[in-house]
Amino acid sequence: MIGMFNRAAQMMVVAALCTSANGAIAQTPTARIVSAANAFLATLDETQRKSVSFAFDDEQQRARWSNFPQGIFKRAGLNMGELSPTQRSAAMTLVSAALSKRGFEKVQQIVDADEVLKTTEGNGRLLFGKDLYYISILGTPSDKTPWMLQFGGHHLALNITIAGQRGILTPSLTGVQPALYTANGKTVRPLGQESDKALALLTSLDSTQRSQAILNYRVADLVLGPGQDGKTIQPEGLKASAMTEQQIAMLVDVIAEWSGIVHESAAAARMAEIKSGLGDTWFAWSGPTTATPGHNTTAYYRIQGPNLVIEYAPQQMGGDPSNHIHTIYRDPTNDYGRKLTGK
Amino acid sequence: MNAHRVDEYLQATTIQVAKDRVQAEIHLTPGIAIYPVVFAAIDTDRDGAISIAEERAYVERVLRDVSLKVDGRRLKLRLVSSEFATIEAMREGRGTIQLDVDAPVPRGGPERTLTFENHHLSKIGVYLVNGLVPTDPDIHYRLQHRNYEQSQYQLEYVQAGVATDLPLSPWWTGPIGLFTIAVLLASAGLIRSRRRHASVAT
């Protein structure tokens, strides 16, 4: 009976994937995500469906995300380790449908880094690895009414609100440890571009601009990390309106490392929104102004605009801060899609 | 490598300024290596648990170790709420003590200076302090200054709709005004009396 159920579920996933591939021209991204969500839900039994489903306005579940590993932070939903290969595949198909190609690759690299950590550091109550990433759905997948997809675990919290054709990725957390590792003979730096592009922007500034951008105090951690929903701090640093066109293009390129995680059409809409407030967007840097080539910077930086907060914060935590990064991506006007959904 | 703070006591404060009041949220997160130091400061009877009285005493200690001033005048902080993470969470470097405090701001001129200092357990403390964007459209931040550690913070802001820091009521209704009027009336009475005496003499 269970075998029949699994085969039926497998067929539904395959059918959904085929529909997605064949109907790519006709289907909107939201329709693809909804289709992938329904295909994933169809693979689950009743108990699992209850575990993965939450009300759209469940504030506790919305805010139940963290940079902490499982074991010292309790997540809800379904974790990958408790899913069958078919269910897990359907779950990842759903996540990939909601993200861009590069966004999904970044997510996989963050998860892979945690798998590396599992082999080197897992101990006691600190639990690491691919099995410990959770998926949850808030509301009912729909291309009309808003709903939310969450996917996260250690160093990852994606909160994706789907509201019609819009896909809102804020607030989301990306992080990584180790920030540099080798997989299949290749060097991987999941958040390498976030570091290199920002450092290149800083390096492009003249002395007057640098004196404004570089803060004269230490920033030891994220200011608006998990648990800090709804806050907007006073911006500081160098305003984009005081940058050259080339520097503004570099700033946009840094921002795209976060705004481009979500699928392409949502990312384009988001970037248009960010660009509309670009003149009032600030870039602030605290810490070393150089980095070891091929390694992440150990400096903190923040990009803040009318509808944007990005923070990049290397973590001391008794080790090499270039190898342990936390970042946060927010829209203070629209975290969890509140501006569009009213909830 | 660690997944949590180790040898630092992260103390992050956000400050919200309004015309008549300042609110501050203080988040205290001990790292795992220095947790025993923080716990010893809280668990003063050394019974391994944190009682309500010990929570209160620790909050009072924190509030003594921080200072909030506006225009040089130290404000008396009122505890609005406090929340202590479990001992287990704090031991693992993921537990936070959150204090919400506020203080009334005495009336003043349009240009004001707020200072916040935090010297709580300074040997192990690392500090963050930020002004939240004001919700009152009449408040505009001009400058923020911090020392390198962020244990000292200064915010210069402008408060619209305030013409002057002089008393708003007319000068003659105050003690000095009343005294002056009394003196003038008394003088006038004396002059009249002298004139009366003078006319009698002639």
Protein topology:
The complex is a heterodimer of chains A (343) and B (202).
Chain A: H1 2-22, H2 29-42, H3 46-52, E1 53-54, H4 59-62, E2 78-79, H5 85-98, H6 101-121, E3 134-138, E4 147-153, E5 156-163, E6 166-168, E7 172-176, E8 181-183, E9 186-188, H7 192-204, H8 207-213, E10 238-239, H9 245-259, H10 264-276, E11 282-286, E12 300-305, E13 308-314, E14 325-330, H11 338-341
Parallel strand pairs in A: 1-3
Antiparallel strand pairs in A: 2-3, 3-4, 4-5, 5-6, 5-7, 7-14, 8-9, 10-11, 11-12, 12-13, 13-14
Chain B: E1 9-17, E2 21-30, H1 35-42, H2 52-65, E3 66-70, E4 73-74, E5 78-84, H3 87-91, E6 97-104, E7 111-118, E8 125-131, E9 139-146, E10 152-159, H4 175-201
Parallel strand pairs in B: 1-8
Antiparallel strand pairs in B: 1-2, 2-6, 3-4, 3-7, 5-6, 7-10, 9-10
Low-confidence runs of chain A (pLDDT<50, min 5 residues)? 1-24
| General form of chain B | elongated
Distance between the termini of chain B: 108 Å
Tell me the number of structural domains of chain B.
2
- The count of DSSP E runs of length 2 or more, i.e. the number of strands of chain A, is 14
Mean pLDDT of chain B: 85
Tell me the fraction of residues in β-strands of chain A, as a range. Answer: 15-25%
Query: What is the averaged pLDDT score of chain A?
Result: 92
Word description of this protein:
The complex is a heterodimer of chains A (about 350) and B (about 200). Chain A is α+β, with helices and mostly antiparallel strands and about 350 residues long. Chain A folds into two domains: about 1-165, no CATH class; about 185-340, no CATH class. In chain A, about 40% of the residues lie in helices and about 20% in strands. Chain A has eleven helices and 14 strands. In chain A, strands 1, 2, 3, 4, 5, 6, 7, 10, 11, 12, 13 and 14 form a twelve-stranded mixed beta sheet that branches. In chain A, strands 8-9 form a two-stranded antiparallel sheet. The termini of chain A are far apart. Mean pLDDT of chain B is about 85; it is low at about 165-175 and about 195-200. The N and C termini of chain B lie far apart (about 110 Å). Chain B is α+β, with helices and mostly antiparallel strands and about 200 residues long. Chain B folds into two domains: about 10-160, no CATH class; about 170-200. In chain B, the strands form two sheets. In chain B, strands 5-6-2-1-8 form a five-stranded mixed beta sheet. In chain B, β9 (about 140-145) and β10 form a beta hairpin. Chain B is elongated and about 55 Å long. Chain B is built from four helices and ten strands, in the order ββααβββαβββββα. The chains are: A alpha+beta (about 350), B alpha+beta (about 200). Chains A and B meet through α6 of A and β1, β8 and β9 of B.
